[in-house]
């Protein structure tokens, strides 16, 4: 578990990791079953599992994550239906960021060397999303990406590298819109 949290190669089959994933699976089932409950009740559930939950933060169920305890949400963050966060390491989402339905934020990564990959080892690279960012429906945010404040990510985009503050990117791979 310590190697995973440090972003080093780790064995995903480790008993401690499997136990943490099982706990997150039970928590997400509870959270998703609370879809008809007030946002304040769901926010209380978020605070049970997530690293940080700013005032007014909302995640609309269904929502899925690997662990939960590596996710930090700023004030007024909004994630729409069917978002997935694979949080083997830190995922930080800044204040007032809006994330559309079906977005996936992925920190889990795999070795490029086929021999090491064959062992089943994995590692993580943190994702940082700034403040007042808008991420369109179905976008994929890949491991290690940083998105600057006020950026806009087009629907269906695959973000493979950092996005500058205030930039608009779209496509696969996501590229900056020319002014």
From TrEMBL:
UniProt superkingdom: Bacteria
Organism the protein comes from: Pseudoxanthomonas sacheonensis
Enzyme Commission number(s) of this protein: 2.3.1.79
MF (Gene Ontology): maltose O-acetyltransferase activity
Enzyme's top EC category: transferase
Pfam families recorded: Hexapep, Mac
SMART domains xref list: Mac
Protein name, entry field: Maltose O-acetyltransferase
């Amino acid at each position: 578990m310590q190697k995973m949290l440090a972003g080093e190669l780790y064995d995903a089959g480790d008993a401690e990791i499997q136990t943490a994933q099982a706990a997150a699976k039970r928590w997400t089932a509870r959270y998703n079953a609370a879809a008809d409950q007030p946002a304040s009740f769901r926010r209380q559930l978020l605070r049970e599992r997530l690293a940080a939950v700013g005032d007014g933060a909302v995640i609309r169920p269904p929502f899925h994550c690997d662990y939960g305890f590596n996710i930090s949400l700023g004030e007024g963050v909004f994630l729409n239906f069917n978002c997935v966060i694979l949080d083997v390491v830190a995922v930080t989402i800044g204040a007032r960021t809006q994330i559309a339905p079906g977005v996936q934020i992925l920190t889990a990564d795999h070795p490029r060397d086929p021999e090491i990959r064959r062992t089943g080892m994995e590692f993580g690279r943190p994702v940082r999303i700034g403040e007042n960012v808008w991420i369109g429906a179905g976008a994929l945010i890949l491991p290690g990406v940083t998105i600057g404040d006020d950026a806009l990510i087009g629907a269906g985009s695959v973000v493979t590298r950092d996005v500058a503050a205030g930039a608009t990117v779209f496509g696969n791979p996501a590229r900056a819109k020319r002014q």
